[in-house]
Amino acid sequence: MGRPEKPIVTDNKPLRELAEGLRERRRLAGQPSYRELARRAGVHATTLQRAASGDAVPKLHVVLAYLRACTAPEGSAVAKWKEARQVQARARRGRPMHSTVRPPALVRDFADLSAQLQQLYERAGSPTLREMEHRAGGYGVLPRSTAHRIVTRQAVPHSIAQFRAFLHACEVPVTSHAAWEEAWSRAWRHEKADAVPAEVARVPFTKKDDTRKIPRPSNVYPAYLTDLDEARPPSRRQRSKKRPYRASWRADPLPLQMPADSFS
Question: What 3-state DSSP class applies to 157?
Answer without folding.
Answer: coil
